[in-house]
Amino acid sequence: MATEGEVVEKQSSYTYWVRTATEEAAPLPTPRKLTAEDISKRSLTNSNSLGSVWNQAGTWEERNLNTWASNRIKELLSSLGTLELSSGKATIDEVSKCSGDVESRLSDDKDLTADEKVRIRRDLQSLVAPIRMKLQEFEQELKDR
Fold first, then answer.
1. 9 inside domain
2. What is the separation, in whole angstroms, between the first and last Cα of the chain?
3. What is the per-residue pLDDT across 64-110, written as a single tens digit (0 to 9) for each?
4. Is 7 part of any domain?
5. Name one Pfam family in it (predicted).
6. Among 20, 65, 71, 140, which residue has the least CB neighbours within 10 Å?
7. Partner residues linked to 90 by β-bridges
8. Is residue 18 part of a domain?
9. Cα separations in angstroms, 29 against 10, 11, 62, 73, 91
10. Tens-place pLDDT, residues 108-136
11. Residue 104 lies in a domain
12. What is the pTM of this model?
């Protein structure tokens, strides 16, 4: 059982998040709704700053762009058209899901000659280049938003 001295020591120990306000603590911030006057002052004084009207400091403002990004990636990849390969043509007809990483591997189980494996690897590399360019285009659009 704890003695009275131990209880006093635990009560006065430092805690990072204080749950009860003390006299010397700073007052809690109180939210204030923006008025029409606040908004008009904001538009007159700092019309070229980024972010919302309430964000006058220009601090980070998080926006969920998942839907836009997924749709844009699908649109960019679908716009590739026909890609010429050494053994034919390839097209991206549909992008059903956008997630994960890209990896390509040739299985040793296939009965392919060394020349066929080299040709397939070159075809895969030539297929990746335009996809990479479209994804770089997407990355730049994302930075510009």
1. no
2. 61
3. 888 888 889 889 988 888 888 887 888 888 888 777 776 666 666 66
4. no
5. Aha1_N
6. 20
7. 83
8. no
9. 29, 26, 21, 41, 57
10. 666 788 888 888 888 888 888 888 899 89
11. no
12. 0.49
Of 32, 34, 14, which is closest to residue 22 (Cα–Cα)? 14
Classify 91 as helix, strand or coil.
strand
Token look-up 């390839």 returns 90
Question: Alpha-carbon torsion 72, 75, 77, 80, what sign?
Answer: negative
Residue 145: both structure tokens together: 């938003």
Range of the domain at 70: 66-96+111-144
Q: What is the count of structural domains for the chain?
A: 1
C-alpha dist (Å) from residue 100 to 7, 37, 53, 85: 53, 47, 36, 25
